[in-house]
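pasting Transporter for the record, 75 residues
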Amino acid sequence: MSSNHRPGSADPLHGVTLKALLEWLVEHYGWEELGRRVPINCFLHEPSMNSSLKFLRRMPWAREKVEALYIAAQR
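structre below
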């Protein structure tokens, strides 16, 4: 599994946009599994990329959970 961050960067999210991160997670897990792993309504009920991005940008606690899942999945 390859990582999208720049070599030498200590931050695994360096250079990864929220949209790219979410697209990778949806491709990797699918909406249903993503909703099981991070149980938030935008993943559980009629999920879409746009509604999920809007929610994650407004709610830092949810974004942190999604980022943590992405980092764990990259290892």
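Residues 18-37 form the longest helix (20 residues).
The mean pLDDT is 91.
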